[in-house]
Amino acid sequence: MKDEPMISRILQSIFFKNATGKAGRYARNSGRLFELAKDVVGKLQRVGFKNNLSDFQSSVQVLIRMVRAYASGQYKSLPWKSLLSIVAVLIYFVSPIDLVPDFLPFVGVTDDVALVVWLMKTLGDDIRKFSDWEKQEKTINIG
């Protein structure tokens, strides 16, 4: 197990499986999605990701915007499977006890970072489509 890449260990962990099990219930309830987004924002502020993790913070913020846009009904082009993956990762992210517990200084967020990086790569097309939609919405609302 020690030689396994971290992402494999995370995806196979009881903690991620638990988050995945909850994802469907969250995804079907816009109130829960908004609450999850709020919890994620709170954790980002509490943990206080510094400059060296600004890309990570930006990635999480894109995921939050995707969840909020889906929950509000503004953006429905997100495939269900992708939504479930995003929700599972965000549930894992806000959980204080996971593969690497968050209370451990410095290393406590390494599993969260690895998981978000993996998700951004895995859902690259869906994230690009959302970003394009988001830019178009801003153009429409400004113009």
Question: What does the model show?
Answer:
It is globular and about 45 Å long. 73% of the residues lie in helices and 0% in strands. It has one domain (6-142). It is an all-alpha fold and 143 residues long. The longest helix has 19 residues, at 124-142.
Which band does the percent of strand residues land in? under 5%
On the 0 to 100 scale, the average pLDDT is 88
Flag low-confidence runs. Answer: none
Query: What's the number of structural domains?
Result: 1
Rg to the nearest angstrom?
Answer: 15 Å
Characterize the main sheet: none
Structural class: mainly alpha
State the share of residues found in helices, binned by percent: over 70%
Number of helices: 7
Indicate the overall shape: globular
Secondary-structure element order, N to C: HHHHHHH
How do the strands and helices of this protein lay out in sequence?
Blueprint: H1 6-12, H2 14-27, H3 30-47, H4 54-71, H5 80-94, H6 110-122, H7 124-142
Helix pairs in contact: 1-6, 2-5, 3-4, 3-5, 4-5, 5-6
Name some characteristics of this structure.
143 residues, mainly alpha, 7 helices, 73% helix, 0% strand
Quick recap:
The termini are far apart. α3 (30-47) runs antiparallel to α4 (54-71) and α3 packs across α5.
